[in-house]
Write a sequence for this structure.
């Protein structure tokens, strides 16, 4: 369209864009915000990451997270058990927050990202690309799985004083998911607009 | 040196904040990005008033969030209500001091920092101050980065409620404080999102 320009979203400074080489990070001279990073991952490896994260997400939700024991009595929970419990215990607001930030948004993010990347591999824009990208932009700040992992750790330490604590497979799945999320949190979605621009649907 | 760098508003350009496309500023009230269709605006709409409103609302909810207990522990007739702070103290004494520091940071330091930082940013940007602009810009990015970790205590209460269900022997229940706290975190996140960091740089000397 025009000369390849980019604007720092933090301070409105205009720059001429140039290709970055491996390991380079472009920073804004005025406000020091990151403008662009070199992308280590190709579209295919990003897709692989997202699919791995989806598998781990299913495991993290299917397997119990922790089991507590007291006098031979055992209680274990999963994410959804926790959400339902908060709903029934007059904390519906918390239940809704947890369901959104720990289940629906992370799941939605992975599905949408997977959908978009699947087509981007062939340089195409997926059906509903624009809608998916807008949705991804808006749910980005609202996924909190990594906070939940730390929360589970704190809960285990607190419960450890009074109960027998048996960590279950779910907590490990969560820990792996936390790592994967950290890796693909660095993915700059805006690149996908440029990558798929030529053969726009 | 940095005052010589061109800014989009001076060149008649607008950057789309969703897809990053650089667009020409047509002076239209309801311009939309040609690529992604999001509304384009030079600065976020009504940034000051929205951020102030959300921040004040968050602060009002933060008071009951701290004063009211967030969790009740019942064990064989013994009832113990914990607020955020008493929960941290208990964790320090009985569990692990390291985690107590983490919880203290997430539940008390981060929200307080957010109130303090956002107020500073709002007041200084509103006065078009040229003071410590780079540091203020960094402060804003820090607030954005760490904001959601405050949700930690809410998830701890939720997990303990679901786990400690041993009938008469031992039981954990959420109390209203946790709802107020959850809402505080959401409102502070919305507040920092409605603030436009570009306002930090719209100082008198850059404009004149």
């Amino acid at each position: 369209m025009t000369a390849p320009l980019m604007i720092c979203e933090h301070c409105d400074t205009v720059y001429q864009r140039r290709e970055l080489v491996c390991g380079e990070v472009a920073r804004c001279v005025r406000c020091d915000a990151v403008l662009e990073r070199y992308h280590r991952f190709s579209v295919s490896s990003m897709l692989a990451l997202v699919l791995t994260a989806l598998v781990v997400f299913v495991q993290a939700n299917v397997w119990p997270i922790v089991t507590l024991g007291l006098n031979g009595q055992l209680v274990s929970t999963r994410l959804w058990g926790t959400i339902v419990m908060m709903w029934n215990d007059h904390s519906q607001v918390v239940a809704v927050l947890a369901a959104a930030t720990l289940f629906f948004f992370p799941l939605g993010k992975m599905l949408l990202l997977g959908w978009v990347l699947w087509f981007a591999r062939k340089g195409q824009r997926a059906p509903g690309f624009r809608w998916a990208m807008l949705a991804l932009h808006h749910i980005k700040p609202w996924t909190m799985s990594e906070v939940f992992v730390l929360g589970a750790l704190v809960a285990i330490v607190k419960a450890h004083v009074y109960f027998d604590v048996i960590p279950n497979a779910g907590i490990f799945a969560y820990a792996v998911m936390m790592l994967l999320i950290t890796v693909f949190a660095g993915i700059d979605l805006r690149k996908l607009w440029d990558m798929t621009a030529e053969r726009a649907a | 040196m940095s005052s010589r760098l061109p800014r989009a508003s001076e060149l008649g350009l607008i950057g789309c904040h969703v897809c990053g496309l650089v667009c020409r500023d047509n002076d239209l009230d309801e311009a939309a990005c040609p690529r992604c269709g999001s509304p384009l605006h030079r600065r976020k709409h009504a940034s000051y008033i929205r951020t102030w409103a959300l921040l004040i609302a968050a602060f009002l909810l933060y008071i009951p969030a701290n004063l009211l207990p967030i969790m009740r522990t019942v064990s064989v007739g013994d009832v113990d209500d914990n607020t955020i702070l008493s929960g941290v103290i208990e964790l320090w004494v009985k569990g692990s001091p390291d985690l107590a520091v983490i919880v203290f940071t997430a539940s008390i330091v981060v929200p307080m920092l957010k109130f303090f930082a956002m107020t500073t940013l709002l007041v200084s940007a509103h006065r078009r101050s040229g003071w410590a602009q780079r540091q203020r810009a960094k402060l804003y990015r820090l607030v954005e980065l760490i904001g959601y970790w405050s949700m930690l205590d809410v998830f701890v209460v939720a997990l303990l409620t679901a786990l400690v269900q041993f009938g008469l022997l031992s039981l954990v229940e959420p109390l209203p404080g946790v709802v107020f706290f959850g809402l505080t975190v959401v409102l502070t996140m919305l507040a920092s999102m409605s603030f436009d960091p570009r306002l930090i740089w719209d100082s008198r000397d850059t404009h004149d």
Summary: Chain A touches chain B through 64 residues (CB under 8 Å). Residues 1-38 of chain A form one domain.
